[in-house]
Amino acid sequence: MAIATINPATGDTVETFEPHDSAEVERRIAEAYQAAQTLRSTSYAQRAEWMHATADLLEADVDRAAAMITLEMGKPVAQSRGEVLKCAKNIRFYADNAESFLAGEELADPSAVAASSAGTVWQPLGVVLAVMPWNYPLWQVIRFAAPALMAGNTGLLKHASNVPQSAMYLDELFERGGFPSGSFRTLLIGSAEVAAVIEDRRVKAVTLTGSEPAGRSVASTAGREIKKAVLELGGSDPFIVMPSADLEAASTTAVKARISNNGQSCIAGKRFIIHTDVYDQFVGLFVDKMKALVVGDPMDEATDIGPLATASGRTDVADLVDDAVAKGAELLTGGSAPDQPGWFYEPTVLAGLSDDMRIVMEETFGPVASVYKVADREEAVRVANQTTFGLSSAVWSNEEAEQDWFVANLDAGAVFLNGMTVSYPELPFGGVKDSGYGRELAAAGIREFCNLKTVWKA
């Protein structure tokens, strides 16, 4: 795949980039390795100062960076602006909290281990490779980079090939904020070259956000090299609505959950599992609100849904919908690509799904919602847990005991009650089953790429 910015709203190629050759890749790895030796010896206070300066740069760049994101992957520009500001918030969060998250601990009674003192310290691993996707071109990277650099690690970025402008913006960002040269470096390489970077002895760990096949490939290489890996893979998140729910609020939030980022989000609500007692009312509200969405130019502030990021991505979505309809699914709205330039797809709602339809088990990465009618909470959980994914989930219920029951029984990395899944710097983020392993964000995220070292003193 060419490394190029292709405007998904028009299909036009805006700019192409030459991949880095082996000599340039070597130079950048060496630079990151050297920077790691420097960065680990700096203080938290110094790194925090650089982090705050980096956040200031992002906030100053918000309009330019947002336009860049929208140009490269097509989300509405208001959402791109929100992504940039969220990155700045995450950077400040780790600047302010890294030292406490990585504070050493001392045993209260070291004599229990025959020592005068004993405890643990957290130390950085060194160079960490990040293999990142296009759907949140800055946020996906920053949520790794901010904690990694605050811990004293350095980063190498292999970004998706369709967001090279975002990749090169990130290549300079932390150095502009004051970090030593080489603290964060982009590698303009193809997927086939990732394994060689993981295998490099100077690279100590890898993190990937992306597809399940990509995760299996990266995890296989990391396992063979006995290197730490964190994987955030796909999701087909359930959005469950029970009779006690506020249906107006639930249906409004359901639409936002499904179409945010043009429906291209791992943590989006994708499968809407509705109790039979409120099914007709909820679906009526939901479909009406999906029909009212504005599809159009993502640079227009009035647009709700822009184009999908790639032509192949739209084809994948269309194939899932067409397969379901051909096998008897009911199309409640949408179901086709508008006749216009760019990779647009209509907001779509499908009902009457059966297990032979691909969409039941596969992730739908676009503005397509699947609706299920269930008789009780047990059937809701059975449908919710039937896929191989387990990233996040949402439950709408105003009965506290019922909320607790769902929290206990859903196979997911998170449960959001009477809301939609959102990633916050303050909360750990990650999944179970084929959605990956490890955690990003919060204290758990910064500790993933650190060595927890035991210190015992006679």
From TrEMBL:
Name the EC number(s): 1.2.1.24, 1.2.1.79
Chain ranges of the Aldehyde dehydrogenase domain: 3-455
- Group of enzyme by EC: oxidoreductase
Write the record's keywords in alphabetical order, separated by commas.
NADP, Oxidoreductase, Tricarboxylic acid cycle
Membrane-spanning intervals of the chain: none
Protein name, please?
NAD-dependent succinate-semialdehyde dehydrogenase
Q: Which GO terms describe its molecular function?
A: aldehyde dehydrogenase [NAD(P)+] activity; succinate-semialdehyde dehydrogenase (NAD+) activity; succinate-semialdehyde dehydrogenase (NADP+) activity
Q: Which GO terms describe its biological process?
A: tricarboxylic acid cycle
- Keyword NADP found: yes
Family matches, as InterPro entries: Ald_DH/histidinol_DH, Ald_DH_C, Ald_DH_N, Aldehyde_DH_dom, ALDH_GabD1-like, GABD/Sad-like
Q: Which family does it belong to?
A: Belongs to the aldehyde dehydrogenase family.
